[in-house]
Structures are given as structure tokens and as C-alpha cells.
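Milestone M4 deliverable, item 7.
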Amino acid sequence: MKPTLPGKLVNETPTSPVFSPDGKLVAAGIFGAVRVWDVQSEKFRDYPAELKTETPARIFFSPDGKWMAAGVYGAVRTWDLATGASHDYRMKLRNETPRIIAISPDGQTIATAAFGGLMKWQFQGFPEAN
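Output delivered:
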């Protein structure tokens, strides 16, 4: 039996699927990207990671479901779901990959564990999309 929502590679298992707040989308890490499927139509869109060879371990949707975040090599990367634009929030150590990300209930603050403590940023939107 073939999977309903395919990964990128035949022998790949997508990581940590998560539903958007409204339940209309489901996202998972795949080789080199985050793949987001529309639950109803089963169509998908890929949002590239920092490195072509990395698979984001966990994905986090904003409370309004308009953007998502994941740890990528050296940063927390956010993507605008409508445009695909991305923005990176850099870690102190270049080779540090965040595993768990917290997004405040109002969607304006992003936090993650980092070497020596926590790092937090004000969400800046997607400048390249403006």
C-alpha cells in the first residue's frame, strides 16, 4: 500500500508530522525541505531548508497558521505559507541546529534552547515578500 501523502524520496520517512491550527494543512520534514500538504486535495509545496542535505526534525505553525518555523543548520527558519518567502533567525553558534521552537500565543516572539540558555527574537515577518 502506497502512502497517501508522498515524501520526496522513495525510501524516506518524513519527520514529525504536524497539523496547522485550522487542520487544513499537515507539514513534515523531508530531505532538504519542509513539505506541506493540503489535507483535502493532497497537493503539496516544499519549503527549502538551509542545506540541501538536511531534514528538519520538527515543524511549528504560528498560532494564526500563516507561517511556520523549523530548526535548520545554524538558525530558526520561518516560512510564509502563502508566498514561500523565508527569514532566518541566527543562532550564537553557526553549527547549532535548534530542535524545539516556541512561538508565543500572539505569534510575535520566537524562542529556542541554545548553548548556555535560551534565545528569543521578535518575529520580523518576511522582508523579501514586501
